[in-house]
TrEMBL record:
PANTHER family on file: PERIPLASMIC SIGNAL SENSOR AND SIGMA FACTOR ACTIVATOR FECR-RELATED, PROTEIN FECR
UniProt keywords, alphabetically: Coiled coil, Membrane, Transmembrane, Transmembrane helix
The protein's name: Ferric-dicitrate binding protein FerR (Iron transport regulator)
Family annotation (Gene3D superfamilies): 2.60.120.1440, 3.55.50.30
Chain segments annotated as transmembrane: 81-102
Protein FecR C-terminal domain span: 254-317
Database matches in InterPro entries: FecR, FecR_C, Ferrdict_sens_TM
Coiled coil: 16-43
Organism (species): Dysgonomonas hofstadii
Listed GO MF terms: sigma factor antagonist activity
Stretches assigned to the FecR protein domain: 115-210
Length: 336
């Protein structure tokens, strides 16, 4: 069981790695625990901490003596945690925030990083140090410096995120992804889908202009409405025009499918509803669907799909593991 003290330490980034893993597993499995964490963050006088944090001139503070910085480091870390928690307290949406900070004995020029992990079944709006905004889909991890340098802004992404980047011609914004792919921009709006368990990485541009650097150092330019599909195994890149809103509607809580296979639909439903979907057979998994879902529940969506294809489904409830964590709810699909 996860007690109140452990949740508090988790919120403040004071857990051990093992405690962190246990809390995250419990959060994925328990909506009640996610609500408890949400209420805990609200009770930590977040508003006062934000005001205090904003009153600090970070650049001036950084120029103070090494001794002063070392003494203040832990206190600044806690305030930063409260600031980020404020952005995560959206209704029914919650994410896990872990801030990695330096030991007091480490040199002051070592960069401090923040890492945000969004559990399956949630969507998080998150503000970066430069006021750029990013929406993180379920199962996504974003890592970035607590303070960006004066020459560049670099973040590392695994999962899916929509970026609204603040324009700054002097400081390019980089997104590094698995398999050596990266994006650099100066100010624009775009979506990246880079889950580790997918065979591809895709990027779509809504506004502005972006440059994608492939592992072999080729630069591919995307203009609004363009989409790049990168195959991890074959290292192939395909650029084409797409319906941008289909790719980015998830951040508004919508699921839009255009000529999508059952396999693609079920994978997105797994992340959206934090469930596991199991096929008994895959007879007509290549059947294509066109649908838009806004506020429908998972059973409503599955009932809709069953009318268009010969499929039946049943639910298997979560089960408690020996370590007191829970498995995901399982949906078993029978394709006739």
């Amino acid at each position: 069981m996860i007690d109140h003290e452990l949740l508090l330490n988790y919120c403040l980034g004071k857990c051990t790695q093992e405690e962190q893993r246990n809390v995250e597993k419990a959060l994925e499995a328990s909506e009640e625990l996610r609500n408890e964490l949400h209420n805990l963050r609200l009770s930590l006088s977040i508003a006062d901490d934000i005001k205090e944090m904003e009153a600090i001139d970070v650049e001036v503070a950084y120029q103070r003596t090494q001794k002063k910085i070392r003494k203040e480091k832990n206190r600044q870390f806690q305030r930063q945690c409260m600031r980020y928690a404020a952005f995560l307290s959206l209704p029914l949406l919650i994410s896990t925030l872990v801030l990695f900070y330096l030991n007091f004995s480490e040199p002051e020029d070592v960069i401090q990083y923040a890492e945000v992990k969004t559990p399956m079944g949630t969507i998080t709006r998150y503000e970066l140090p430069d006021k750029s905004v990013v929406w993180l889909n379920g199962g996504t991890k974003l890592r970035h410096p607590v303070t960006f340098s004066k020459n560049e802004r670099i973040v590392n992404l695994e999962g899916e995120a929509y970026f609204d980047v603040q324009a700054d011609p002097k400081n390019p914004f980089y997104v590094n992804m698995p398999h050596g792919l990266s994006v650099y921009v100066y100010g624009t709006q775009f979506n990246i889908n880079a889950y580790a368990d997918e065979s591809y990485i895709e990027t779509v541009l809504e506004k502005g202009k972006i440059n994608i650097i492939t592992p072999d150092q080729r630069t591919i330019v995307l203009l609004p409405g363009e989409h790049l599909f990168y195959e991890k195994q074959d290292h192939k890149s395909i650029k084409n025009k797409v319906d941008v809103y289909e790719k980015v509607a998830w951040k508004d809580g919508k699921l839009i499918f255009r000529n999508a296979s059952l396999e693609e639909i079920f994978k997105r439903l797994e992340r959206h509803f934090n469930v596991e979907i199991e096929f008994n057979n895959r007879y007509n998994k290549e059947y294509k669907y066109r649908a838009t879902f806004r506020n429908e529940t998972l059973p409503q969506i599955l009932d809709y799909l069953s009318k268009s294809a010969a499929l039946k489904w049943k639910t298997q409830d979560s089960e408690q593991r020996p370590d007191d964590t829970f498995t995901k709810k399982k949906i078993i699909i029978d394709l006739n």
